[in-house]
Structure formats: structure tokens, C-alpha cells
Amino acid sequence: MQPKDLLSLASAFGSPLYVYDAEKIASQYARLTDAFSKTGSLRINYAVKALSNIAILKLFRKLGAGLDTVSIQEVQLGLHAGFEPNKIIYTPNGVSFEEIEEAAHLGVQINIDNLSVLEHFGARYPKVPVCIRINPHVMAGGNSNISVGHIDSKFGISIHQMPHILRIVENTGMHINGIHMHTGSDILDIEVFLYAAEILFDAAKHFATLDFLDFGSGFKVPYKKGDIQTDIEELGRKLSKRFNAFEKEYGRKLTLAFEPGKFLVSEAGYFLAKVNVVKQTTSTVFAGIDSGFNHLIRPMLYGSQHYIENISNTKGKERFYTVVGYICETDTFANNCRIHEISEGNILCFHNAGAYCFSMSSNYNSRFRPAEVLWYNGKGLLIRERETFDDLLKNQVDVALD
């Protein structure tokens, strides 16, 4: 998208504002499917938690994707968006057994990562196909909060507990149709990914009735010009070759599955915010915007560095600014960042705002959550209205305290 397009959307819909480029989402989806085109059967399950707007889910349905869900609410959103239950995989962690039962009754693919839950589910529903999430004990990911395959992770059943898994499967007679892993997010070294894949292949040999192997995701995307990223094409060549070889060894046709979220929507997203104040102190020039970590928490939570562009002044002289929000505590988006000269009223654009931005937003400081717009076929479509004061009061009960 061009700055003039984003400026027109900020003018039409106000700020702050989330904007998603449908063409970029489609191109990322095509890039991933092309990279693994040498496999006989490929399934891309979009990770709903990254960005769960119904319009985005419908776009992925149109592209041919399935869904990766981690809560019963995400399952329900997927069904509401028109996905067939067999196109949805449900991978919860630490939820009640009743929620897992509800998902099973809805007919979606169940993925279990806990021995006790596996045994309980197998005893109650031995005929319901189940995928097992393995923890390969591989440390991968760009931050401790998003590294989920290491030995101290709460996710998955340890690969060293395979004898326990096999005992449960034998005792319950349950049907295992898939094996799953997810090592973490922002994976750069594909050799680490391929190493973990070998662990998954070894685990798969213990089960004769598999339909698919799910390799999770976690591919790194660039956050600024020239930034490093996962080489999807190289990974596609190497993993496809190994997967096809394993399929022959296994003696049964298998589907290669992934569950990307950030890879598909991060670069398609833009967050637009207006500069309220430019404040010079003894050592710093602050650019204060009409937003805060209530709308974009990733820099504060993960230390992520989003490229910030002054789309109101793309040709001006560059100066150093510390970009901060309006929340009543420190919420710094960037320290001493080079940005084209900023004036009050300018619109700043935060790139890579498609994943885990709106979905992690809140009403902290009783601020409204922004609107969302989908840029589709050269037009801006409002896909979520900006919140109002009535939304803050919704579900609150005004009791008499006389």
C-alpha cells in the first residue's frame, strides 16, 4: 500500500486505525503454498489468534486455508465464518475437559498436549480421531515468551514420554490420526526446524493410522527494510524432499500441515496513529501519539521493533524521535528512532501490525479500541467499527449503592 492510500483511510475512518492489505495476505499464502508445491498433499491452517476478524477468516476460506484454533471461541468464530468443521484444528492448553468435549461435539479436529487429558478423552471418546502435540525439546523462537518447544515449556507432551502415550493409546483403543509440534515463533535457522522435524518423523513411526503431520509454524518475517527472515523457499525444498521420503517409508499417503499466523498477516497490517504532541526535553524529542500499548503492546511485551514511517511527510529531513503513547505509564514504541521530521497532526504508520496487534488490544485507561479496515481491490472496507462509550459500559451492571 502507498502512503497516500493510508492517509486517505486515516482521513475517512479516523485514527488510531488498523489497516490490512488483502493482496499482501494472498501473496504470502501463495508464497507458502508454492514453496511446498512438491508435496502431494499440503494444508495451511491459519492461526486465528494472530488476527481473528471475521472478514480476515472469510478471506482465508476463499484462499483455501483451514484454521488453527486454541479456544472454543476461535472454533465458533471459524464456524461462523463458514468453515467446515473438518477444516478446523483445535489445539488447547490448560482448558477444561468440558471445553474439549464441546469442540469434539462440533466435529473439529482435536489436538491434545497432556497425558491425563489424552487418557480421559480416549476412555470417553475412543472413536473420535485425535492428534497428539509433541514437545520435541528444541529451543527455538525470538523471545522466551514465544519459544514453546523447549524442555521447560508448558506446551506439548514430552517426546521422552512416548511410552506413556503408547500405553494410553493401547489401553483405550483410541484413534490417532495426526502428530503435531510447534517449537516457537520468529524461527530464523531452518536447520533447527529441520532437526525438530526429524524428531516428529521418529514419533510418527509409532502410529500406523496417521493422516497428517503438523509442523506448526513460527516463520520469521522482516520488520524493516533489509531485515532477516526465514528462507521459506529453502525450507520448502529441504522439508518437502524429506517429507516425501518419509511418506514412502511410512507406506501411507500423508498431508503436510502448517499453522502460520504472523507469516500470513503481519506484513499486511498497518497501524495508523496521529501525533498529538511533539515535546522537547533536555535530552529527548518525544513524539506523542493518540494511542498506546493498549493498541500495540508488542514493543513493550516482546521488545519488537516495528518500522515507523511518517506518511504525512515522506520527503522531509530525518530527525531522531522517541515515539511514545498516551497511556499513564511508560509506553515507548521506539527510542531515538530516525523518522522524517514530525509535526503535530502528522500520521505515523507502524508497519508489520497485522499479527497480535488488535487481537492483543485492550481498554486499558478506559480507552476505546480502534476501527479495522480491509484494503480490498483498491478500496477500504470497514470490518470493525471504532468502539464508543456505550461499549465501555456494555455488560457492566449499574447497581444502587445508596
From TrEMBL:
EC number annotated for this UniProt entry: 4.1.1.20
Domain Orn/DAP/Arg decarboxylase 2 C-terminal: 18-354
Pathway in which the depicted protein is active: Amino-acid biosynthesis; L-lysine biosynthesis via DAP pathway; L-lysine from DL-2,6-diaminopimelate: step 1/1
Binding site for pyridoxal 5'-phosphate: 218, 356
UniProt feature coiled coil, ranges: none
Catalyzed reaction equations: meso-2,6-diaminopimelate + H(+) = L-lysine + CO2
InterPro entries: Ala_racemase/Decarboxylase_C, DAP_deCOOHase_LysA, De-COase2_C, De-COase2_N, Orn/DAP/Arg_de-COase, PLP-binding_barrel
Cofactor(s) in the UniProt record: pyridoxal 5'-phosphate
GO BP, one annotated term: lysine biosynthetic process via diaminopimelate
Keyword Lyase (UniProt): yes
Active site: 328
Residue numbers binding substrate: 298, 302, 329, 356
GO terms, molecular function: diaminopimelate decarboxylase activity; pyridoxal phosphate binding
Keyword Manganese: no
Keywords: Amino-acid biosynthesis, Decarboxylase, Lyase, Lysine biosynthesis, Pyridoxal phosphate
Modified residue annotations for N6-(pyridoxal phosphate)lysine: 49
Major enzyme class: lyase
Domain named Orn/DAP/Arg decarboxylase 2 N-terminal: residues: 24-266
Similarity comment: family membership: Belongs to the Orn/Lys/Arg decarboxylase class-II family. LysA subfamily.
NCBIfam families in the record: lysA
Subunit structure: Homodimer.
Function: Specifically catalyzes the decarboxylation of meso-diaminopimelate (meso-DAP) to L-lysine.
HAMAP family named among the record's database cross-references: LysA
Record's protein name: Diaminopimelate decarboxylase
